[in-house]
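Re-running the complex after MR caught last week's input typo. The corrected sequence lines follow. Everything else is unchanged.
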Amino acid sequence: MNTVMEIFDTHLHLSEELDNDELVRRAWDAGVRYLLVCGGSWEDSLRARKFAEHLPNVFFAAGVHPHEADGFDGNTDVFRPFAESRRFCAVGEIGIDTYYGFSGLEQQEKTLREMLNLAREFAVPAIIHCRAAEGSLDAYGICYRYLSEFAAQGGTFVIHCFAGNVEWMKKFAELGAFFGVGGMLTFKRSDNIREVVMQMPSDRILLETDAPYLAPVPFRGKPNVPEYLPLVAYKLAEMKGVPAAEIAELTTGNAFRLFKRARR
Ligand SMILES: [Zn+2]
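Corrected-run output:
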């Protein structure tokens, strides 16, 4: 184990089954020193803020997840107070999901548009969820439409857990996109993901768990926790043929550049 690693988990969710304070302590011991908790609804964003504000090096994002779009009444005013928190650093998790389609597409697009407007107003990055229907890349085209307009107006963003192809990765990279890389990198059948990650510009790669989902091998199928994130750093280091500490330094530096937080 390399003790100098300072990894930034740029995307996780609080989960009711886990002791979240304990989770932060264990993450710290594993070298995961910065955490960004994403909100998926107004209520969830409130929980994320409360959690971030009582622990050092924990940041949060507020937003409406595409799964929650149908339940969102369009009232963005209630999100404004989040911007006053010193730990607030992004609008997210927001985006398009045609894989599950838990919310109607029209409502998902409307919500995404409103949330991107908030990110612009607060001058913070957006954290994007983009998941396409099986055998399709439809969600990428839809996200691209909104994000190209957002980027043209100075907006910055990360596509978390990027699972698109090389062509889409390059199109988004041209807009200045950052890409979240997580546990899928370690999955046996994720050659396609590894191929795309190898072609990502190094200065745009962020590490993330998406905890409690997508635990890396050998914990696949179990609830994911930030302390597992070094496994993703090791995998990426092995793929690139560089020391894991270098991956940690690179990706943590990228995260601070995107989220504009002074590193302590
Ligand atoms: Zn997420």
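None of the earlier attempt is carried over here. The CA atoms of residues 122 and 245 lie 33 Å apart. The pocket of zinc ion is lined by residues 11, 13, 38, 93, 160, 210 (CB under 6 Å).
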